[in-house]
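User: Hi! I'm a student and our assignment asks us to look at how structure tokens line up with a sequence. Could you show me two examples?

Assistant: Happy to help. In each example below, the sequence comes first and the structure tokens follow. Example one:
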Amino acid sequence: MPLRPARPRRHAVRTALVALTTATAAALFAAPPAHAADTWTEVGSDRADPLTESQGLTSVEVPANSANRYTGIGTIPVSVSVRGWNHVGDPDASYGGYYVEPYQSDSGTSKMYRVQAPDGTWSEYVHALGSGEALNNSWSAITPDSQWMLSGEWGTMTRFLVFPTPGANASTAPSVNLPQVSTVRLDHAVRDVQGCDFTGPTTLLCSSDDPAGTLFGVTKPLLQIDLSAAPNGTSDVTGHVTALRQLPLSSSCSGTFEAEGIDYDRRSGTLRVIVVSPGICVLTDSKTYRFTKS
């Protein structure tokens, strides 16, 4: 008779493989997740004025006791709009007191960041579009160390752009082009991001006006972006994208809502997001929603 492989040995190998697989699986599931998504609960809302509070918002720490800042078509200075900068996006303020508003025009060649320094003076920093860069300038988000600024493009994107923060970063000057210095490469596509704000050195919350809902299974999502490292202006970082929830869509009118800018105030732990109501209700019940982490 021909010899057959010894069963005990084959059984031992199979048993060892099963044990190894089980142990590996147990270790993987027992390990804490690399990116833990937060939960944000709506706690209230305030009416958003359609002319002056319909694009973006930010809390300002310097000078002390400063009022929150908002942007809308009614906040664009005439001296700015007559030069073609006809759209303002979601602004941000550095912890050192620099306030930055992102502007775009229909020229398709550049973007502009209008900056107010802590002493109250205004300057304009222009960025010439790079190859393949969309003209949209929807938002700005300044890192907690004040040195770097993220900005985004419209449409379906897998990246955010990184710039030195105009004014706050000593390498910048209004007289020279504001360069893109690195990129945040997202592990999941995002669509129509209207605003982002840092909640920590490597965490962003973003409002998306996504009308389709095909990327995350929900329209108008609140997104969390966990970065692989804090932006430093010299090397790219990756961003892990998580959809946390749908933003509130409540109005007396039916139709298409528009998610707008976002702000996180580290002093109170309050997150605020503007949602513009559809139709004629844009005038009456557009809201800035408030959230706290739970």
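Example two works the same way, sequence first and then tokens:
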Amino acid sequence: MTAAPVTFMEQGRCKRLKAASSRDHDSVDQLVMAARPFQDRERYGRFLQVQYRFHGSLLALYQDEQLNRRLPGLVELSRFAAVEADLRDLGLPLPPRPHPVCASPTQALGWLYCSEGSNLGAAFLFKHTQRLGLDGDLGARHLAPPPSGRALQWREFVATLDSVVLDEQEEAEVVAGAIAAFDSYRAHLRAVFAEG
């Protein structure tokens, strides 16, 4: 008698999202590093514009009441205000407020997975900002670790997201949302670094 295979639903949602979007994640990582955002403060300023566009487009999701009921404390996780402060630190004007993303409440979970996951990778980026004389108090607030630490905040987010009960169609929407988020970030990155 052989052991029964692990079913789709037995694997954690965030692990499934990671597997489903790994190619997109890797593509974003490669594009970010190819843009050389830490070469100097001018290029870092462009990177901040990318961050402003992406995190600004998600602000309404972080503030959404329904999503905050599903993911308690979500409103406190947005890094948009920190990006705004970072731009001001560098003496850069705030761009026009980005349009909010258009996503169903279930797709929004995928967008939020992408955004919150980027906070883990921010540890690597944060080290690069220090070579530019920036840190969690000046110009790199949005990349600084949260008070509770990156790992703990991520584990708590994963546990909450994994606990949301969804049907199979909704699960597919979450994946579509995550992939759309990576697509959006790539588009912002290409647009900003192609300018000027």
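Here is something you could point out in your write-up. Residues 1-9 have pLDDT under 50 and may be disordered.
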